[in-house]
Amino acid sequence: MEKVLSASIRGNSNDLIALILEQNPKIAGDARNIETLSWSYDELTTPLAEAILIKNLPLVRRLEEAGALQCLGQGMQFDIALVSAAAVGDTEYVRKLLALRPRAELVAMAPALLRAIQNDHTDLALEFLDAAAGLSVKRASEDSQALIAATEKRNARLVHTILNSGVFNDRSTNLVAAIEAVVKWGNQSIIRYLITAFPRIDFPSLYTEALENEDRNAFESLLALRKPTREYLGDCLKIAIRKDDSSFYHYLIERGAVVSDMELALAARRRPAILRMLLDYIIHRHRRTATRGFGTQALLEAIEERMGNIECLDILLSSGLIDMDFLSKDISPLGKAISWERDYNSTKDLGFPIISRLLDHGCDVDSIVFYHATFSQTAILKAIEVGNKDLVEFFIDRGADIHQAPNFSVKRSPLQGAAKAGNLEIVRLLLEKGADVNTAPARRRGGTALQLAAISGNCSVVAELLAHGALLNIPPSRVKGRWPIEGAGERGRLTMIEYLWEANQNIFYPDPCETGFEEKHCRRAMELAAENGHMACRDLIAKLSGLPIMDT
């Protein structure tokens, strides 16, 4: 019945209200939600609260006579009535409620204060603050929503009063949100007050906001009030770099900003003047502090900008401070430059300018440029994967080791990599340069050039390797290795299976040895083919070997 009464009051249904009151319903029950079963604070109400909201004073008096004020301390009765009175700016009723409960806690007043501020009842909000001033701070709510609301309303009088009320401190919740609201407002007097009032709190957004708005005076005023931390000065330095403001860069450096890799990387994006200044600062003040990985990210950023950023690239390389072989997120600067050759038109006619610069300044041509725990790549292997024959030849001319055998995470020799890629042009180039056609495979997940060519399915590559003395009978990797017939079957290389079988028939093995075409290897090849859905390959191997399919 109480919920029905609240609903009828909200709908201003006088006849229904009168009818319900004739039934003498319970008036002072717990606050409830009249629309759902939710107990959300914002949705709770009572008949008295609804009467206050519609400003029906006779009804308010009648509800009071029926006992609406008798149990204010129970079931949120007081809180909801106070919020309702604050929402409509009924100062007299607020005073009446506070007089009935003079020891009300701030936790009960906070929602009412917030509602008064939101509805522009400034004088009433000030009364709430006066009433709250006498409460113990330890028992006060730590919620700073009132400060945020007053700031959003641009009500300087209320903001100052809230800050002076003694119930808001540097442990208050939502403090950062409150500070950000003040900063967004830009009221300098309140900003200065905040800085003075909260000596233990940092205000990083104040400094960056002033710089973003190019307000040097505001920034200098802030510096005079509170010295920023080194970290915040670094944030300011980034803004100066992004704006390409060399004068402000010097200003910040003089005040203690420290140049790190992050600032260097930002300047490396087409800001040569700032980049020179940063490196000059490092060279003259911190030459011996350059550490592993120093400047690598900046170099990667310069490479990312490609030919339009050659000046910044040259500045970084000529400094002598940059770690050029460091793997940042598993890629080195040389690896980044090679990737660019894959994604964009070749710069062979320009002599691969970015790659050339890296090598000219000491980048190791045989270093790992892409790292992976199981398959890392050197520069020449990456160029092979990219499929750029000119770049492969360029690396060979610059001293890349084409005889480099698989080791650790590098699972391929250059020729093995080219064979796996099925790239006949690069295979021929490497063979012409004297690459060993029978380099042993890696112990795990490796393969000879011939075994990997069989997997790739390029019969022309296999023919080229055989013509240069490749052996079919070299054992594969001990772990995850494949004989040629096994690899071809597993990958569904039907033509390759026929080619390998015929090639094996024409090879003379002087001594008894395992060739890879024995029954056990044929059975294994049939199993691998069937497991991967290559039934035609399985059947072909069965036909060539004379093995029954049912036995595989």
Q: Count the E strands.
A: 2
The CATH architecture classification of the domain at 402-551 is Alpha Horseshoe
End-to-end CA span? 81 Å
Coarse morphology: elongated
Biggest sheet features: 2 strands, antiparallel
Q: Which structural class should the secondary elements be placed in?
A: mainly alpha
**Multimeric state:** single chain
What Rg is obtained from the alpha carbons, in whole angstroms? 40 Å
- Poorly predicted runs: 136-142
- What's the average pLDDT? 85
Count every helix, treating DSSP H or I runs of 4 or more residues as helices.
Answer: 32
CATH class of the domain at 402-551: Mainly Alpha
The CATH homologous superfamily of the domain at 402-551 is termed Ankyrin repeat-containing domain
* Major sheet: arrangement of strands: 1-2
Q: What percentage of residues falls in helices of 4 or more residues?
A: 55-70%
CATH topology of the domain at 402-551: Serine Threonine Protein Phosphatase 5, Tetratricopeptide repeat
> What share of residues are in beta strands?
under 5%
Describe this structure in words.
The structure is a single chain. This protein is mostly helical and 552 residues long. Among the domains are: 324-401, Ankyrin repeat-containing domain (Serine Threonine Protein Phosphatase 5, Tetratricopeptide repeat, Alpha Horseshoe), CATH 1.25.40.20; 402-551, Ankyrin repeat-containing domain (Serine Threonine Protein Phosphatase 5, Tetratricopeptide repeat), CATH 1.25.40. It has helices at residues 2-10, 14-21, 47-53, 57-65, 77-87, 91-100, 106-118, 122-133, 145-152, 156-164, 175-185, 188-197, 204-212, 216-225, 230-242, 246-254, 261-267, 272-286, 296-304, 310-319, 333-343, 353-360, 379-386, 389-397, 414-421, 424-432, 449-456, 459-467, 484-490, 494-505, 519-531, 535-545; strands at 368-370, 377-378. It has a two-stranded antiparallel sheet. Strand 1 and strand 2 (377-378) form a beta hairpin. Helix 21 packs parallel to helix 23, helix 29 (484-490) packs parallel to helix 31 and helix 31 (519-531) runs antiparallel to helix 32 (535-545). The N and C termini lie far apart (81 Å). Residues 136-142 have low confidence and may be disordered.
